[in-house]
C-alpha cells in the first residue's frame, strides 16, 4: 500500500517539477541585451530616491523572549523561540542585528506599551524589532497498558508505553522602528507528542525531558507561524526595466539572492499614491497593489532578478513601482515531502 501511495505522490511531484520549467527564460542573452525588446515604461508618480533604487536588506532585531515563569523546563521553549525566529528570517534574506546592540529596547517597548512614551534608546539599530513572549507551557505524561490483538489468525502484543505531550502558547509582537509602531501581534502556538518504553507506570518526566518537550512544542509553534512573520520582511524593491519577446513579458526588480529571493517565488507589484485624510487633515503615501502578480525566473543575481509577468503588466507597470516577495503558506511540494518523508 505504501508503494502505491509513494508512486502516486512522486508522480505528482514530478508533474510539479515539470511545471517549474515555466520559470526558464529562453534566449535570455538576446532578450536582455537587444534593445529591440526593451519597452519604455513611464516613471511612477512617486519616484523612489537613487539610494532606494540601489536596494538594501531589512534589518531586524529579535529581542530576548519574555516569559512570566521561573520554571526551568520552560527555558527550553524560550531558547527555541528566539533562535527559530532568527533562522526563519535569515532564510528569508533578512539581516539579523545582534540583540546585544539593542540595549534596553525591550524595556523601552514595555514602557511605551504602558505609557505611550519612549526615550529613543536603541531605536536606531534596526528597521523592525520582534518581541517574542511565552505565556504558557504545559507538559504531561500518560500510561498505556499492553494489549493483545489477532490479525490473520496470528496473535500479537502491543507493549505498554509511556506517552508524553507538550503545548506552548505565546505571541510575537513586531514593531516598526524608530517610531515603535506596532505592525502585528502574531500568535504562536505549538504542540508536540511522543511515546517511549515504560520504566515505571507513573511515566515520570525528568527535567531534561521536560526541557526537550517544551523546546519541541516551541519549534512546532514557530514553524506554524514563521510565514506570518516573514510576510512583513519582504523589503522594498522597485521595477527598473521592462522587456518583452514573442508574447512573453519580463520586469527587472532591485532584489535578488542576497535578499533571499529564489526562482519560483511570487512577486506582488504595487504603485505608491498620495491619500488625503479629511479626518486627520494630512496626506500620506499608501501602497495600491496591482491585480496581477509575477513569478521569479531563473535569472536571479545578487541584487536584481527578472520577473515573469502577464501581458497586462505592460500598460500598468511604471519605472519605480514597488515589488515585494509574497510569502505563501507551506508549498505543496513541502507538504508532499512530509507525507512520504522524502
TrEMBL record:
Domain of life: Bacteria
Protein name: Curli production assembly/transport component CsgG
